[in-house]
């Protein structure tokens, strides 16, 4: 019993589609940042961290990932996570539009006295990613 022509065709398609996705991801990584991220610091009431995201690409964005590290007064890490920003207004997800600047904030752990925030990656609607690293 041999390999069916359908199986060969399916395997070839899988190899080529995977290669195309990797090439698209590599092209995004090599280019200019698709968003400009600005960390605004801790709010005056010490309950949130704020940030701005300015979209610099026409390629449709699905979400933006942000590194967040919170430390207490002794320098001990109290929280280290990735914020997944998706432009949710109220409880409705809205499109992320080219040329717009979005301002948002994320709650801060009550034990935190310092927070560092940085852009991690951008995930596009087609599944490709751009990484800040």
Please give a structural write-up.
With about 130 residues, the protein is of the alpha+beta class. It has one domain (about 30-130): Immunoglobulin-like, CATH 2.60.40. The chain has one helix and nine strands; from the N terminus they run αβββββββββ. The strands form three sheets. The chain has a four-stranded antiparallel sheet with strand order 4-3-8-9. A hairpin with a 2-residue loop joins strand 5 (about 90) and strand 6. The longest helix is centred in the first third of the chain and has 26 residues, at about 5-30. The radius of gyration is 20 Å and the shape is globular.
TL;DR of this structure?
The chain is α+β, with helices and mostly antiparallel strands.
Gyration radius over CA: 20 Å
> Structural class, from secondary structure content?
alpha+beta
The number of distinct structural domains comes to 1
- Which sheet architecture does the biggest sheet show? 4 strands, antiparallel
Mean pLDDT: 84
Q: For the terminal residues, how far apart are their CA atoms?
A: 49 Å
Task: Please state the overall shape, judged from the principal axes of the Cα atoms.
Answer: globular
- SSE order, as H and E? HEEEEEEEEE
Question: How large is the share of residues in beta strands?
Answer: over 45%
CATH-defined fold name: Immunoglobulin-like
Strand line-up of the largest beta sheet: 4-3-8-9
Approximately how much helix is present in the residues?
Answer: 10-25%
Low-confidence blocks of residues: 5-30
